[in-house]
Amino acid sequence: MKTVALIVAAGRGTRAGGGLPKQYREVAGEPVLRRTIRALLASPLIDGALTVIHPEDAALYAQAAPADPRLLPPVHGGAERALSVLAGLKALEAAAPDLVLIHDAARPFVSPRVIADVVDALGSHDGALAAIPIVDALRREEGGLCGAPVPREGVWRAQTPQGFRFPAILAAHRANPDPKAADDAEIARAAGLSVRLVESEADNFKITAPRDFERAERQAAMREIRVGQGYDVHAFAPGDEVTLCGVSIPFEKALSGHSDADVAMHALTDALFGAIAEGDIGRWFPPSDPQWKGADSAIFLRKAMERLAARGARLANADVTIVCERPKITPHAPAMIARLAEIMGVEPGRISVKATTSERLGFTGREEGIAALALATVSL
């Protein structure tokens, strides 16, 4: 089933202070909106995403949005949240997704587990609402004083994502007469749709007030950092080009290997698998299996990124070093970075590709082949 995330980012966020709308302010060096989009696209269940923005925020959005081919062009929202969601749903209509997950731009810490649970609930319900059951005692305010208790049994605190079967929620929003409706679940219920409560996580909080940015900074800093390394070697064979980091370079030789022998991409793939302790290329794509003969190494790299997403991990940076006397690598490095970024679905600024020689020493110095080393840093 095709599932798309719809990110609502058209609000002004005045309660958060700080001048800029809160979705464009930074947390640990990154705009909140970028973190939110990346968190959603990190789920292997999300096929694409669309953001609804304020008409005046085009430049801010262009700076904040990650470079990801799955991210659709933004659309302008309305004066109320419900109007913004409707604008986004209409923009998605041509893509005809099966499911849509509507999410607040100011919730940058949504986890793959919450996303998966919301999607799973849509297998048996029209809608699903991420929420947290209330455990604290509730009291009414009476003139600034503590008033009567409010029963908390069966009371949940609504969050996002709020997921729906796309045709049903589009029809519900089109029929909605109240642009100030509390949320999409309320609009769905008014249309007669069943909305399942899905238990969420406290970390999936919404940045609303200035103090929330302090909490967000602490939460961003608490992620576990892991580093993986990769190393690979391929010998030269007769041919007229080599493929490195997905880029074909004309040369008087080729590289020998079971797949396309992209030694640099193999090293990077192993580094990614290593960072999450999930083996290496040989475990996932054994050379004894004939289906991988001549295979595009992009398949391997995408699988490694899928495994990162499944673990809730995010790439911080990748650093690839190619060791050879020839061909010259530096002129092709920008194209290599761009190709890796495209395959991995990350910003080019998170990837480094560089080259060195072995000063005519060893098998690379004798021009018998090419070696590659890679380091990958991920956060969990």
Oligomeric status of the shown chains? Answer: single chain
Q: From the alpha-carbon coordinates, what is the Rg to the nearest angstrom? A: 24 Å
Uncertain regions: pLDDT < 50 for 5+ in a row?
Answer: none
Helical run tally = 12
Major β-sheet strand ordering: 5-4-1-6-10-7-11
Helical residue percent?
Answer: 25-40%
Tell me how many strands there are. 18
Order of helices and strands: EEEHEHEHEHEEEEHHEHEEEEHHHEHEHE
Structural class: alpha/beta
Structural topology:
Layout: E1 3-9, E2 26-27, E3 30-31, H1 32-41, E4 48-53, H2 58-64, E5 75-76, H3 81-92, E6 99-104, H4 112-121, E7 127-133, E8 138-142, E9 145-150, E10 156-165, H5 166-175, H6 184-190, E11 195-199, H7 210-221, E12 225-238, E13 241-244, E14 247-250, E15 253-255, H8 263-275, H9 281-284, H10 298-310, E16 314-323, H11 333-344, E17 351-356, H12 362-365, E18 369-379
Parallel strand pairs: 1-4, 1-6, 4-5, 7-11, 16-17
Antiparallel strand pairs: 2-3, 6-10, 7-10, 8-9, 12-15, 12-18, 13-14, 16-18
Helix pairs in contact: 3-5, 5-6, 8-10
Report on this model:
The chain is α/β, with parallel strands linked by helices and 380 residues long. The chain has helices at 32-41, 58-64, 81-92, 112-121, 166-175, 184-190, 210-221, 263-275, 281-284, 298-310, 333-344, 362-365; strands at 3-9, 26-27, 30-31, 48-53, 75-76, 99-104, 127-133, 138-142, 145-150, 156-165, 195-199, 225-238, 241-244, 247-250, 253-255, 314-323, 351-356, 369-379. Strand 4 (48-53), helix 2 (58-64) and strand 5 form a beta-alpha-beta unit.
